[in-house]
Amino acid sequence: MKMRSISSIWVGLRMIVRNRKRGFSLIEVMCAVAILGVALVGLTQGITTALGSNKESELQTTAALLAAGRIETLRAEGYLYDGVEEGECGDDLPQYQYTQTISSTSISGLHDVQVSISNSRTGTTIYELETLIFDPSDVQNPETEKKSSDKNKKREARKQ
């Protein structure tokens, strides 16, 4: 008897499985499409944010290199003069302009140098770099007085 009852249950289950229709219901499909839509919107927003951050990083890096380059140019020239100078960063980088400010400090020969890189279209400052540079020709002593006068002549020529 137990065999018949198990076999009859088995036959009943097979009938239920055969009668069930195969495939997805409309509600299941709509839920899957909604989940996929939300995921795609999130992915699109993530990609857009990453591209914007990448462009901003590129601007910051380029501006930092330009500012450091201006300061290294001043060091390479070997003499400093107080004042403000503005200019373009070259034909290759027309969207950047610089403002360099050199001012004397209370210590003889020590100059405060500030370089600011800004966007030439909007005028907003992208990067600022400040450092101190020592110019030994500004220190007055009898041995370097001749060298100092030569450097002063070069300074005057550059100012003009």
Written description of the protein model:
- The chain is of the alpha+beta class and 160 residues long.
- It has a domain at 55-139 and 149-159: Pantoate--beta-alanine Ligase, Chain: A,domain 2 (2-Layer Sandwich), CATH 3.30.1300.30.
- Helices cover 53% and strands 22% of the residues.
- It is built from 3 helices and 4 strands; from the N terminus they run H-H-E-E-E-E-H.
- It has helices at 2-19, 26-77, 145-159; strands at 83-88, 96-104, 110-119, 125-134.
- The chain has a 4-stranded antiparallel sheet, with helices on one face.
Features:
rod-shaped, single chain, 160 residues, 4-stranded antiparallel sheet, 3 helices, alpha+beta
Give the secondary structure arrangement, pairings included.
Blueprint: H1 2-19, H2 26-77, E1 83-88, E2 96-104, E3 110-119, E4 125-134, H3 145-159
The CATH topology annotation of the domain at 55-139 and 149-159 reads as Pantoate--beta-alanine Ligase, Chain: A,domain 2
Q: Please trace the helix and strand order, writing H or E for each element.
A: HHEEEEH
Strand order of the largest sheet: 1-2-3-4
CATH top level class name of the domain at 55-139 and 149-159: Alpha Beta
Shape: rod-shaped
The Cα radius of gyration reads 37 Å
* Fraction of helical residues: 40-55%
Mean pLDDT value: 82
Low-confidence stretches: none
Largest sheet: 4 strands, antiparallel
What is the terminal-to-terminal distance? Answer: 117 Å
Q: Per CATH, which architecture of the domain at 55-139 and 149-159?
A: 2-Layer Sandwich
